[in-house]
Amino acid sequence: MNQIKNIILLVILVLYAFTDLRANKAYPLVVAKRFEYPGGRLVANTYDRETYFFLKKSWIENSETILKWRGTNRSELIGIRLGLDKILDLEIVSRQIILIGQHSNKLLCQFYNFDMELQSSFLLDTIVEPISYFAKIKKYHHTYFFLANNKLWTIQQNNDQLIPNLFYGNIEDYDLINSNLYLIEKHDQFIVLKEYQELTKFSRQIRLESAEINKFRLIGDYIFVKSTFPEINSTLVQIISRKNFRVIYKNIFDLNSNLIDFKLENDAPAIFYSYVDQSKISIEKITILNQNPEKKSISLNQEIYEPIKIEIQENHIFLVARNSLIILNSNLKTNLLFKSQFGGKLGDSLKIQFQPNKLILSTENYSELLEIKENPYWFVYYIYFNLLKFIIPIILGLIAFIFFNLYNRQKKVFTELLNLPSANIFIILDAKGNVEYLSAKARELLMIDPAVKINVPLPELLKNQIYEPILSFYEQAIQNPSYHSQKLTIINNREAREYLFSISPYFSVSGTLNGFLINALNITEQLERKKMSNWAQLAHDMQTNLLTIKLNAEQMVCDENSDNNDRKNRILHQVNLLQKRVRDIVTIGRSTNLELVATDTIELMNEAASEFDRTMFPNVDISVICEKIDLVCDKPKILRAIRNCIENGIKALPDGVGRIDLNAWTEGKMVCLSVKDNGKGMDELTKKKFLEPYFSTSKDGSGFGIGTIIIQQAVELHNGKIEIKSKPGLGTEIIIKLPRIRKN
Predict the structure, then answer these.
(1) pLDDT, tens digit, 9 for 90 and up, residues 38-53
(2) Cβ distance 474 to 518 under 8 Å?
(3) What is the extent of the structural domain holding 495?
(4) What does the alpha-carbon distance between residue 341 and residue 26 come to, in Å, rounded to a whole number?
(5) Is the pTM of this model over 0.90?
(6) Residue 711 lies in a domain
């Protein structure tokens, strides 16, 4: 049986592992190689695909350094220190490396050739504070445009000379298309988009909603503006038609701006964005068609989580998530899925640079180069892995069917055990002895709160000395995993409780040991009943002795006013009381018939109080302070109940000193009989257990809880109720509520 189980598990594990390792091949593109470059930003040379530049910070000299090498093996490596504190932008234009950077309070522009030789350096501006926002470099014919520090400069290339010039100020962003220049001017409450023809001739302008510009792009006949509201992590998207210079689309997305990008779809503007919906990453496309946006969305695999950035380049949609890279086409079909932990390495400064067969993911402190190739067999893998969705469930279904009957049998045994009356204390352990389940009674025994989750070895819960018998029984039983049973005595706060414990192992359907079942039954009540039976027999035997004492005492001749006559009367009084108590023990639980008589509360309370001789309780003041209320009841039974309440009250008085107040009143159709003491009182646990059969607060073994049984039985026979009011240190009041007319 074990061999069959192991083979099945091995097959499932192999299928799962193979699926996990090969699933990325079920797409048209795959990552062939991966190269990591920690410490800086990697930039590909657009004129020579085998040449790379690497920007990194030299922490020793606090200046920027640029490295150049060929190929992924970093051959022909050379590097120079740029003399800049911070690089704001780098572009490779016309076989030149152009940098905008900051050094001290100077904004500089530098030109390098591909041999890393400095060709020109220009001071563009003097700055007061470090520049934390982006810069931007573009070229149109022989003119270079530079945006930094909210100013737009040009550098005119005239023969071998480069002539810098401040072009416009107060500029948030710009872009060029043909000879048209578009500028975004920042104002206090709004931004203005301006159009200049032939770079300098003002043509028209439009006022836009203000926010922090994140991306400004000209695509065909449309202008895309993406702005952010950092304080609420939202993004404003505005699309402007270049033909009529008006806003054709405007919307605020509750998304980080890195998760939104644009492109043209059949000459129509389209917005792509990613969001998390019900723990799944979704990608949605909105196409703007004649004021009626069309939406299309997909949900990615649930194992992909936390999107970082979405960007569109050359009709590819790149989505970088915390644990995956996904490349999709315009129809939102996945072309590549590559799983890797990007989240701890790539952050908000992520830049994506795509070239044929190469993808660069770079930040200021870490970069990756991924070589991408076509996967000619992707469709075979696709069919195979989709078939696995059906094959694995079928296999698992067959396995489930094979084991169903065996499991069902074991489940029935478990259910029967849990439903047994003896299962009120029930503990389930795993094969290592860790607790998996505790019933409510088991938690009560081990003093564990119901809200506390338990997953520890059983001996950890049995460290208290009072549980030593259970621990010893458990340790002996698990040495030989078979059924064991034993009677154990648990002593807590000097109160002894008897339990019948049993332990038995349980096995899985394959025959391996799964754990142990511990079942315990509180047999204290049964033992007390047995004791009561013995006491009843003893009490029955005592009746003859008491009768002899009474007859002899009655025949004693004494002067009517002498001390001996008083002693004789007290002896007879106490013998009568003792006979009643013996009769209580002998008849407890037997008599269920009521002999109803008319009486009143004063008569009941005075007769109950008279049974307590002042010579025996000289320091106890028993007072009857009730009003007279007519009552129909079984007088002897109610008297016994009141008498036992008084006895409990006297026992609760510290050093036998205090008072007992007997009172009565009416509540609607109920007569309330109250016995109140000023003794030590009861806590909530004692109050809860007070009316349990055979419960006693006596710690010396002198009490057996008979009095509480007598009280409860008498009240129940009268269809009454018992109410207990008590607080530690403030005494106890027991209220017996009886109906004035007994219900038939």
Answers:
(1) 988 999 988 888 899 9
(2) yes
(3) 420-522
(4) 20
(5) no
(6) yes
